[in-house]
Design a protein that fits this description.
binds ~{N}4-[3-(aminomethyl)phenyl]-1~{H}-indole-2,4-dicarboxamide, about 230 residues, 6-stranded antiparallel β-barrel, about 5% helix, 6-stranded antiparallel barrel, 13 strands, single chain
Protein backbone atom coordinates (compact mmCIF):
# COMPACT_ATOMS: atom_id res chain seq x y z
CA UNK A 1 0.00 0.00 0.00
CA UNK A 2 1.55 3.35 -1.04
CA UNK A 3 0.57 6.58 0.67
CA UNK A 4 -1.56 4.87 3.30
CA UNK A 5 -1.09 4.25 7.02
CA UNK A 6 -0.91 1.37 9.49
CA UNK A 7 -4.40 -0.09 9.90
CA UNK A 8 -6.20 -0.08 13.23
CA UNK A 9 -5.26 -3.51 14.59
CA UNK A 10 -7.85 -6.21 14.04
CA UNK A 11 -10.47 -3.92 12.47
CA UNK A 12 -10.23 -6.11 9.38
CA UNK A 13 -10.65 -9.60 10.84
CA UNK A 14 -11.42 -10.91 7.34
CA UNK A 15 -7.90 -10.14 6.03
CA UNK A 16 -5.66 -13.05 5.03
CA UNK A 17 -1.96 -13.18 4.20
CA UNK A 18 -1.13 -15.84 1.59
CA UNK A 19 2.33 -17.13 2.42
CA UNK A 20 5.01 -19.40 0.99
CA UNK A 21 7.75 -20.62 3.35
CA UNK A 22 6.73 -18.00 5.90
CA UNK A 23 6.87 -15.10 3.44
CA UNK A 24 3.87 -12.89 2.60
CA UNK A 25 3.04 -13.16 -1.11
CA UNK A 26 -0.50 -11.85 -1.55
CA UNK A 27 -3.59 -10.66 0.26
CA UNK A 28 -6.92 -12.42 0.43
CA UNK A 29 -10.00 -12.48 2.61
CA UNK A 30 -12.29 -14.93 4.35
CA UNK A 31 -15.59 -15.36 2.47
CA UNK A 32 -16.72 -18.46 4.41
CA UNK A 33 -15.36 -20.48 7.37
CA UNK A 34 -13.29 -22.71 5.12
CA UNK A 35 -12.79 -20.42 2.07
CA UNK A 36 -10.53 -17.50 1.18
CA UNK A 37 -10.86 -15.38 -1.99
CA UNK A 38 -7.73 -13.96 -3.61
CA UNK A 39 -6.23 -13.31 -7.09
CA UNK A 40 -5.24 -16.02 -9.57
CA UNK A 41 -2.05 -14.09 -10.55
CA UNK A 42 -0.76 -14.80 -7.03
CA UNK A 43 -0.01 -18.38 -8.06
CA UNK A 44 2.25 -17.27 -10.93
CA UNK A 45 5.63 -17.72 -9.26
CA UNK A 46 4.63 -20.39 -6.75
CA UNK A 47 5.81 -23.28 -8.92
CA UNK A 48 2.66 -25.26 -8.08
CA UNK A 49 3.23 -25.10 -4.30
CA UNK A 50 0.20 -24.55 -2.07
CA UNK A 51 -0.01 -21.38 0.01
CA UNK A 52 -0.41 -21.26 3.72
CA UNK A 53 -3.02 -18.75 4.93
CA UNK A 54 -2.40 -16.50 7.94
CA UNK A 55 -5.60 -15.33 9.64
CA UNK A 56 -6.17 -13.08 12.66
CA UNK A 57 -2.96 -11.12 12.08
CA UNK A 58 -2.00 -7.48 12.27
CA UNK A 59 1.78 -7.96 12.50
CA UNK A 60 3.25 -10.65 10.24
CA UNK A 61 5.96 -11.54 12.77
CA UNK A 62 4.86 -10.74 16.33
CA UNK A 63 2.86 -13.25 18.39
CA UNK A 64 -0.79 -12.09 18.58
CA UNK A 65 -3.88 -13.64 20.12
CA UNK A 66 -5.99 -15.60 17.56
CA UNK A 67 -3.26 -15.36 14.88
CA UNK A 68 -3.08 -18.72 13.15
CA UNK A 69 -1.52 -20.21 10.01
CA UNK A 70 -3.81 -22.57 8.09
CA UNK A 71 -2.85 -25.16 5.52
CA UNK A 72 -4.68 -25.12 2.21
CA UNK A 73 -6.51 -28.22 0.91
CA UNK A 74 -7.24 -26.85 -2.58
CA UNK A 75 -6.44 -23.79 -4.70
CA UNK A 76 -8.94 -23.15 -7.50
CA UNK A 77 -8.10 -20.35 -9.98
CA UNK A 78 -10.99 -19.11 -12.12
CA UNK A 79 -10.91 -21.13 -15.37
CA UNK A 80 -10.77 -17.92 -17.41
CA UNK A 81 -7.69 -16.54 -15.63
CA UNK A 82 -4.37 -16.48 -17.49
CA UNK A 83 -0.93 -14.90 -17.28
CA UNK A 84 -1.40 -12.63 -20.29
CA UNK A 85 -4.15 -10.35 -18.99
CA UNK A 86 -6.17 -9.45 -15.90
CA UNK A 87 -9.32 -11.32 -16.94
CA UNK A 88 -11.12 -13.46 -14.32
CA UNK A 89 -8.21 -12.87 -11.93
CA UNK A 90 -9.74 -14.73 -8.97
CA UNK A 91 -8.47 -17.61 -6.81
CA UNK A 92 -10.46 -19.63 -4.28
CA UNK A 93 -8.54 -21.36 -1.50
CA UNK A 94 -10.13 -24.11 0.58
CA UNK A 95 -8.54 -24.31 4.02
CA UNK A 96 -7.60 -27.72 5.44
CA UNK A 97 -10.20 -27.11 8.14
CA UNK A 98 -12.82 -24.50 9.08
CA UNK A 99 -11.23 -21.34 10.47
CA UNK A 100 -11.91 -20.74 14.12
CA UNK A 101 -13.98 -17.51 14.09
CA UNK A 102 -13.51 -14.92 16.84
CA UNK A 103 -13.09 -11.16 17.27
CA UNK A 104 -9.91 -11.29 15.14
CA UNK A 105 -11.12 -13.79 12.52
CA UNK A 106 -14.36 -13.05 10.73
CA UNK A 107 -15.97 -13.59 7.33
CA UNK A 108 -16.55 -10.52 5.11
CA UNK A 109 -19.61 -10.56 2.86
CA UNK A 110 -19.16 -9.72 -0.78
CA UNK A 111 -21.41 -7.83 -3.20
CA UNK A 112 -23.86 -10.06 -5.08
CA UNK A 113 -25.74 -7.34 -6.95
CA UNK A 114 -24.03 -6.80 -10.29
CA UNK A 115 -24.17 -3.00 -10.38
CA UNK A 116 -21.21 -0.59 -10.65
CA UNK A 117 -20.09 1.25 -7.53
CA UNK A 118 -20.67 4.95 -8.31
CA UNK A 119 -17.61 6.95 -9.37
CA UNK A 120 -16.07 9.02 -6.54
CA UNK A 121 -17.36 6.57 -3.89
CA UNK A 122 -14.53 6.38 -1.33
CA UNK A 123 -13.60 2.78 -0.67
CA UNK A 124 -10.77 1.27 1.34
CA UNK A 125 -8.13 -1.32 0.60
CA UNK A 126 -5.67 -2.93 2.99
CA UNK A 127 -2.66 -5.17 2.63
CA UNK A 128 0.87 -6.12 3.59
CA UNK A 129 2.15 -5.10 0.14
CA UNK A 130 5.08 -2.77 -0.40
CA UNK A 131 4.77 0.66 1.24
CA UNK A 132 7.45 2.56 -0.71
CA UNK A 133 8.62 2.88 -4.31
CA UNK A 134 11.85 1.23 -3.19
CA UNK A 135 9.73 -1.83 -2.33
CA UNK A 136 9.88 -1.75 1.47
CA UNK A 137 7.74 -4.56 2.87
CA UNK A 138 5.80 -3.74 6.07
CA UNK A 139 5.39 -5.93 9.11
CA UNK A 140 1.96 -4.49 9.96
CA UNK A 141 -1.21 -4.29 7.89
CA UNK A 142 -1.56 -0.98 6.02
CA UNK A 143 -4.70 0.59 4.61
CA UNK A 144 -5.60 3.43 2.28
CA UNK A 145 -8.85 5.10 1.21
CA UNK A 146 -9.35 5.47 -2.54
CA UNK A 147 -12.12 7.05 -4.66
CA UNK A 148 -13.65 4.91 -7.40
CA UNK A 149 -12.78 6.06 -10.92
CA UNK A 150 -15.43 5.62 -13.63
CA UNK A 151 -14.76 2.87 -16.14
CA UNK A 152 -14.83 5.45 -18.94
CA UNK A 153 -12.08 7.52 -17.28
CA UNK A 154 -10.10 4.39 -16.48
CA UNK A 155 -10.40 3.18 -20.07
CA UNK A 156 -9.04 6.41 -21.49
CA UNK A 157 -6.25 5.70 -23.99
CA UNK A 158 -3.69 7.50 -21.77
CA UNK A 159 -4.74 5.28 -18.83
CA UNK A 160 -5.74 1.62 -19.24
CA UNK A 161 -6.72 2.12 -22.89
CA UNK A 162 -9.99 0.15 -23.13
CA UNK A 163 -8.72 -2.92 -21.28
CA UNK A 164 -11.12 -2.46 -18.31
CA UNK A 165 -14.10 -4.78 -18.82
CA UNK A 166 -17.49 -4.73 -17.07
CA UNK A 167 -16.02 -7.29 -14.66
CA UNK A 168 -13.36 -4.85 -13.49
CA UNK A 169 -13.32 -1.51 -11.69
CA UNK A 170 -10.72 1.17 -10.95
CA UNK A 171 -9.65 3.54 -8.21
CA UNK A 172 -7.60 6.71 -8.48
CA UNK A 173 -3.90 5.94 -8.04
CA UNK A 174 -2.45 9.41 -7.57
CA UNK A 175 0.20 8.90 -4.84
CA UNK A 176 -2.05 6.57 -2.81
CA UNK A 177 -2.37 3.14 -4.37
CA UNK A 178 -2.06 -0.62 -4.05
CA UNK A 179 1.26 -2.21 -4.91
CA UNK A 180 3.25 -5.45 -5.04
CA UNK A 181 1.88 -7.90 -2.48
CA UNK A 182 -1.53 -6.23 -2.17
CA UNK A 183 -3.00 -8.35 -4.97
CA UNK A 184 -5.85 -10.56 -3.78
CA UNK A 185 -7.01 -8.20 -1.04
CA UNK A 186 -10.57 -6.83 -0.98
CA UNK A 187 -11.72 -3.35 -2.04
CA UNK A 188 -14.31 -2.56 0.65
CA UNK A 189 -17.00 0.05 -0.06
CA UNK A 190 -19.58 0.77 2.63
CA UNK A 191 -18.55 -2.36 4.53
CA UNK A 192 -19.02 -4.73 1.59
CA UNK A 193 -16.25 -6.39 -0.46
CA UNK A 194 -16.92 -5.10 -3.98
CA UNK A 195 -13.72 -6.24 -5.71
CA UNK A 196 -10.32 -7.93 -5.46
CA UNK A 197 -6.97 -6.19 -6.08
CA UNK A 198 -5.26 -7.22 -9.31
CA UNK A 199 -1.70 -6.24 -10.25
CA UNK A 200 -2.74 -4.94 -13.66
CA UNK A 201 0.07 -2.88 -15.15
CA UNK A 202 2.14 -3.52 -11.96
CA UNK A 203 2.77 0.22 -11.78
CA UNK A 204 2.11 1.76 -8.36
CA UNK A 205 1.22 5.30 -7.33
CA UNK A 206 1.14 6.74 -10.85
CA UNK A 207 -2.11 8.57 -11.60
CA UNK A 208 -1.84 7.53 -15.25
CA UNK A 209 -2.28 3.88 -14.23
CA UNK A 210 -5.28 3.64 -11.88
CA UNK A 211 -5.53 0.64 -9.56
CA UNK A 212 -7.48 -2.21 -11.18
CA UNK A 213 -9.76 -4.63 -9.33
CA UNK A 214 -11.79 -7.67 -10.31
CA UNK A 215 -15.44 -7.01 -9.41
CA UNK A 216 -16.87 -9.89 -7.36
CA UNK A 217 -20.63 -9.74 -8.14
CA UNK A 218 -20.24 -11.11 -11.70
CA UNK A 219 -18.53 -14.18 -10.19
CA UNK A 220 -20.95 -14.91 -7.34
CA UNK A 221 -22.38 -17.99 -9.13
CA UNK A 222 -18.89 -19.38 -9.80
CA UNK A 223 -17.86 -18.82 -6.17
CA UNK A 224 -21.04 -20.47 -4.83
CA UNK A 225 -20.64 -23.36 -7.27
CA UNK A 226 -17.06 -24.11 -6.24
CA UNK A 227 -17.82 -23.89 -2.51
CA UNK A 228 -20.84 -26.19 -2.97
CA UNK A 229 -18.99 -28.70 -5.15
CA UNK A 230 -15.74 -29.28 -3.25
CA UNK A 231 -16.87 -31.56 -0.42
CA UNK A 232 -16.50 -29.69 2.89
N1 LIG B 1 -1.32 -0.40 -8.25
C1 LIG B 1 -1.42 -1.58 -9.03
C2 LIG B 1 -0.82 -2.77 -8.41
C3 LIG B 1 -1.60 -3.57 -7.54
C4 LIG B 1 -1.05 -4.74 -7.02
C5 LIG B 1 0.24 -5.13 -7.36
C6 LIG B 1 1.02 -4.30 -8.19
N2 LIG B 1 2.34 -4.60 -8.56
C7 LIG B 1 2.86 -5.84 -8.58
O1 LIG B 1 2.23 -6.80 -8.27
C8 LIG B 1 4.27 -6.02 -8.98
C9 LIG B 1 4.69 -7.31 -9.35
C10 LIG B 1 6.01 -7.51 -9.73
C11 LIG B 1 6.92 -6.46 -9.74
C12 LIG B 1 6.49 -5.19 -9.36
N3 LIG B 1 7.16 -4.01 -9.28
C13 LIG B 1 6.29 -3.07 -8.84
C14 LIG B 1 6.65 -1.64 -8.64
N4 LIG B 1 7.84 -1.31 -9.05
O2 LIG B 1 5.92 -0.83 -8.14
C15 LIG B 1 5.05 -3.61 -8.65
C16 LIG B 1 5.18 -4.97 -8.99
C17 LIG B 1 0.48 -3.14 -8.71
Amino acid sequence: ILGGHVAEPHLRPHMASLQLDGEHVCGGFLIAEQWVLSAAHCTEETDGKLFQVLLGAHSLTEPEPHKRLYRVRAQIPHPGSNIHNNKDDLLLLQLEEKAELNEHVQVLRFQREDRDVAADTVCEVAGWGTVSHSGRRPDKLYQVERPVLSRDDCNHRTRHDHTITRNMMCTDSRKKDTCKGDSGGPLVCNGVAEAVVTAGSRVCGNYKKPGIYTRIAPYAAWIDGVMASVAG
